[in-house]
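Colleagues,

For the teaching module next term, I've prepared a clean inverse folding example: a structure given as tokens, and then the sequence designed for it. I'd like students to try predicting residues themselves before seeing the answer, so please don't circulate the second half yet.
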């Protein structure tokens, strides 16, 4: 992907070259043990703080000095490496920060931080990252040495990197300005979910005009078909690289060639869920590849809506249906017998 820059009447061509992340930055792990938290001191960050890089947890200054010879500084990047692997954010604070092993610290003084952060967010980079992620672990994780090995194309022009980074930083700032409105809409949606679905009375608190019939209780198997028979698990080293998302219990695990399902579906973790409080339920549309760790459901036409079905399943007490020990499992029969609310009118 060559670019041109005019210099004294002639063009200088800056090529984009392939390199490893470890060629442009140093990668560090946080501490591996949970500290004793303080009411104040040095802010302590973990994977759940990646979106804001703020926390209500603190460690003492003595603890910080004993455990952090290298720590996040303004312009560095923190990257999630456990659970929801691969989410980056640029450190804006000039205050000292402590961080847990669930985050990786990227120090790249010779490359624009916003250029690198947004490059990490590209689909191609994420494909490479997922291929190096240990998906058999619960939760999934990536080691810092594997992060260093991720390959990508980088501009040889620092000015080009700076211009790209500056543009994307401005766009991110605009997005941030809309975050408050987004949060308000999320609160509105949450309130509507409580009011627009029928509970014990059989009647939602809020109805659209023209709808007044009672909702009826039914089993999931009465309004949905299950397509688990089409699932095909493929171990990582046998997958053929492609553009189709490869789904497991907790969402996208990889990108592969080919597909197992084509359409609108709800994926519900069968086993290996990494969050029982917010049980993994994904609405998907289009061509996907699903392994044998997620149930594949689709609403029966004229009886229900697949997207609506996802909301209803999310309201169910799925955890009560799980069996087994450390790797709890959601049996298909138990799932299909769960009670769901449904309108007597055609959806």
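(Answer key — instructors only)
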């Amino acid at each position: 992907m060559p670019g041109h820059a005019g210099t004294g009447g002639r063009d200088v061509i800056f090529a984009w070259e392939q390199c490893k992340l470890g060629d442009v930055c140093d990668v560090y792990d946080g501490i591996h043990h949970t500290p004793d938290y303080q009411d104040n001191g040095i802010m302590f960050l973990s994977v759940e703080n990646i979106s804001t890089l703020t926390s209500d947890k603190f460690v003492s200054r003595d603890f910080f000095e004993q455990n952090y010879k290298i720590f996040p500084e303004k312009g560095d990047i923190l990257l999630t490496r456990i659970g929801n692997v691969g989410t980056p954010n640029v450190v804006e604070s000039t205050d000292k920060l402590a961080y847990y092993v669930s985050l990786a610290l990227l120090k790249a003084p010779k490359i624009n931080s916003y250029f690198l952060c947004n490059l990490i967010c590209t689909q191609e980079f994420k494909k490479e990252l997922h291929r190096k992620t240990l998906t058999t672990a619960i939760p999934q994780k990536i080691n810092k040495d594997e992060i260093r090995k991720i390959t990508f194309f980088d501009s040889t022009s620092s000015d080009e990197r700076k211009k790209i980074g500056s543009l994307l930083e401005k766009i991110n700032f605009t997005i941030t300005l809309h975050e408050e409105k987004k949060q308000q809409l999320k609160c509105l949606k949450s309130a509507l979910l409580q009011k627009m679905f029928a509970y014990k009375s059989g009647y939602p608190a809020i109805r659209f005009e023209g709808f007044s019939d009672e909702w009826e209780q039914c089993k999931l198997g009465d309004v949905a078909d299950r397509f688990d028979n089409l699932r095909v698990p493929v171990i990582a080293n046998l997958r053929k690289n492609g553009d189709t998302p490869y789904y497991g219990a907790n969402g996208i695990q990889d990108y592969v060639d080919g597909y197992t399902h084509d359409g609108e579906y709800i994926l519900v973790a069968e086993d290996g869920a990494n969050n029982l409080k917010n049980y993994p339920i994904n609405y998907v549309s289009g061509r996907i590849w699903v392994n044998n760790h997620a149930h594949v459901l689709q609403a029966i036409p004229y009886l229900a809506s697949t997207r609506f079905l996802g909301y209803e399943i999310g309201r169910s007490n799925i955890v009560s249906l799980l069996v087994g020990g450390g790797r709890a499992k959601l049996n298909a029969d138990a799932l299909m017998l769960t009670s769901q609310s449904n309108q007597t009118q055609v959806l």
